[in-house]
Task: inverse folding
């Protein structure tokens, strides 16, 4: 790989990691590894080259060096090639005992344009600033990109310009296979559901039972370990299959899944609108047992949400087993445990539970883990990655964790879902804003990928910015409802002007932000986010105990109350309407005992409302809930706002037109 010139030696005296009970030799090894890995970029090109050109010209050190700089031993991680490693999910307890825990910072944004406003880029630029320029221990925790957007419209999620995770092509394409593992597990469960329904429809009780518990050659038979939870659920304490009565055998063997209400769908990690509604079982071998279903994009799978919310392998097993796939004909929930498939799902996911360690362009560590979208899922990287990161940096260090899309969905779910489940409290929230997006919220013309920006976005228009800052100020006000300090990051574009930035800063400070900082990290790397890093450090130190943190609602309230609290408090809706289907689902989930679960709204990222065209800070609307799903394993209820697709479609001109491979160097071309 090529390299950027470095500004002198990386760090003659890098700040040592916070170590309490670690030997001198280990501490010296950490310092030596930091000298080798952490570096400042210099002699950067202007205009900034394409993201992939920047990434492929970068110095990338072996991942073992990055791991050593974090104070990890070889027993703590497994290398995946030269530049990636899986970090054990068990390492956080050991590191926490040695070092304590660092500050916890969430990075969110305003409602974006379809082009994106650089939230991932800001997260990485801030990490480079804190680690390489401010010499603080810092880890960025970000999500794994889905290949749907990578080949569709949005592109990858490795950052951009001189603030990137590298190697970017490895991050954006497959990484260490976690999303593939989720897809395999999800689709195994989907196949198991349809197969079980088919076999129950085509066999009598005794034949079905005999096939589930076949006799060995010596005439004996036994329940598989995976069947024991089903037996316990039925109140059957017998362990010999031959001891069950005829009624018990029928109850065990027949799940009696309601075919018309199966909620589990198949997944694929691509944008494909034609899979949104399909019919399965059309081959003659399925004897006419067809049904309508559909696909979701893989990152919308509940298994992805389980990965993001889990805290250990045992917790993952519990959550996977609790996933509800359908009601039975009596309305009772049928789970993965009932199907006896939980152990197989854990086997497919046992490596995916480990976050992937990578590095930024300036050598600071990054943990990449989980990848749920914020508009259709929980929208945050994993609890496990954040826990490992906080323990890696130790007391006085910083973990920067990214929340997807606008703060109305990504940050809200970070607070009400992730922090509720993990018990961790954030010390600061960064909200990323751009002049471009605020002009759109101020009434500017539509912005479309692949089309030139209208002149309103490339020329100064202070009045348009003044009208649009209401979007930013509402995000600030909403974030402060959680009792968290707010620092606004103005992600600068070359066409911005000082007058436009002044409008944003004045509005942000008036709305209660602790600071509002101009950032040039896309063009300058960590140097361009150093002022942001200083502001974040100041806010964290002032909120060291996170004593003011609070959740928006209590769990012990009804599903509707929680939906309406989010709608009215954060979106500023006047009320909520429910379709007949949504009403029925809410009643069913409440009856099944899931009414106390928190809420994960599936909603457009482009507006506070359900209508992507309602820009700025709309209020007084009625929020329509078209459907409701239950993610019992992940631990939340998912209301779908309006008719909301859970797998994107490809545009007329997808990003894949630009992507290829150089036949001589074998380098990937055209990724963004």
Result:
């Amino acid at each position: 790989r090529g390299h950027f010139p470095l500004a002198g030696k990386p760090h003659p005296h890098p700040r040592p990691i916070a170590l309490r009970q670690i030997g001198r030799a280990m501490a010296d090894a950490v310092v030596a590894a930091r000298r080798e890995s952490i570096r400042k970029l210099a002699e950067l090109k202007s205009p900034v080259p394409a993201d992939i050109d920047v990434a492929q010209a970068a110095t990338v050190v072996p991942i073992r060096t990055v791991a050593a700089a974090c104070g990890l031993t070889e027993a703590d991680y497994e290398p995946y090639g030269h530049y990636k490693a899986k970090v054990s999910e068990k390492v956080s307890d050991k590191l926490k005992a040695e070092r304590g825990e660092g500050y916890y910072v969430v990075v969110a944004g305003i409602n974006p344009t379809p082009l994106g406003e650089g939230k991932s880029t800001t997260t990485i630029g801030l990490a480079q600033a804190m680690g390489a320029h401010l010499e603080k221990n810092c880890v960025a925790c970000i999500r794994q990109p889905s290949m749907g957007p990578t080949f569709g419209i949005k592109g990858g999620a490795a950052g951009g310009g001189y603030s990137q995770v590298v190697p970017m092509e490895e991050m954006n394409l497959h990484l260490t296979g976690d999303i593939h593992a989720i897809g395999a597990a999800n689709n195994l469960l989907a196949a198991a559901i349809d197969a079980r329904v088919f076999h129950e429809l085509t066999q009598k009780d005794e034949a079905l039972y005999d096939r589930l518990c076949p006799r060995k050659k010596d005439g004996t038979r036994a329940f598989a370990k995976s069947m024991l939870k089903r037996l316990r659920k039925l109140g059957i304490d017998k362990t010999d299959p031959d001891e069950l009565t005829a009624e018990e055998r029928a109850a065990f063997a027949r799940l009696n899944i309601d075919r018309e209400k199966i909620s589990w769908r198949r997944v694929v990690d691509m944008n494909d609108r034609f899979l949104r509604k399909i019919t399965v079982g059309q081959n003659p071998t399925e004897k006419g047992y067809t049904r309508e279903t559909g696909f979701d994009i893989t990152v919308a799978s509940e298994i992805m949400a389980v990965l993001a919310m889990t805290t250990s392998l045992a917790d993952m097993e519990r959550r996977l087993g609790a996933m509800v796939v359908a009601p039975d004909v009596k309305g009772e929930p049928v789970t993965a445990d009932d199907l006896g498939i939980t152990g197989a799902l854990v086997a497919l996911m046992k490596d995916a539970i480990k976050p992937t360690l990578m590095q930024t362009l300036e050598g600071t560590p990054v943990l990449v883990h989980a990848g749920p979208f914020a508009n259709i899922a929980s929208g945050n990287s994993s609890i496990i990655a954040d826990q490992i990161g906080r323990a890696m940096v130790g007391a006085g260090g910083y973990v920067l964790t990214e929340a997807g899309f606008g703060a109305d969905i990504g940050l809200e779910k970070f607070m009400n879902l992730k922090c509720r489940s993990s018990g961790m409290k954030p010390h600061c929230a960064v909200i990323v804003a751009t002049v471009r997006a605020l002009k759109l919220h101020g009434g500017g013309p539509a912005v479309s990928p692949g089309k030139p920006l209208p002149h309103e976005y490339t020329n100064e228009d202070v009045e348009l910015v003044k009208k649009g800052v209401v979007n930013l100020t509402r995000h600030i006000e909403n974030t402060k409802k959680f009792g968290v300090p707010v620092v606004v990051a103005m992600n600068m574009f070359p066409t911005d002007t000082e007058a436009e930035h002044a409008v944003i800063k004045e509005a942000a400070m008036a709305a209660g932000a602790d600071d509002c900082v101009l950032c040039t990290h896309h063009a300058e790397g960590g140097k361009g986010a150093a002022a942001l890093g200083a502001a974040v450090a100041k806010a964290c130190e002032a909120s060291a105990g996170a004593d003011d943190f609070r959740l928006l609602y209590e769990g012990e309230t009804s599903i509707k109350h929680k939906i309406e609290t989010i709608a009215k408090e954060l979106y500023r809706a006047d009320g909520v309407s429910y379709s007949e289907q949504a009403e029925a689902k809410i009643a069913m989930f409440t009856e099944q005992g899931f009414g106390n679960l928190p809420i994960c709204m599936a909603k457009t990222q482009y507006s506070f409302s359900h209508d992507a065209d309602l820009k700025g800070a709309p209020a007084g609307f009625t929020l329509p809930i078209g459907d409701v799903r239950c993610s019992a394993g992940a631990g939340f209820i998912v209301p779908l706002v309006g008719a909301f697709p859970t797998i994107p479609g490809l545009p007329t001109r997808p990003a894949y037109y630009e992507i290829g491979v150089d036949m001589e160097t074998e380098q990937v071309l055209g990724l963004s």
In short: The radius of gyration is 26 Å.
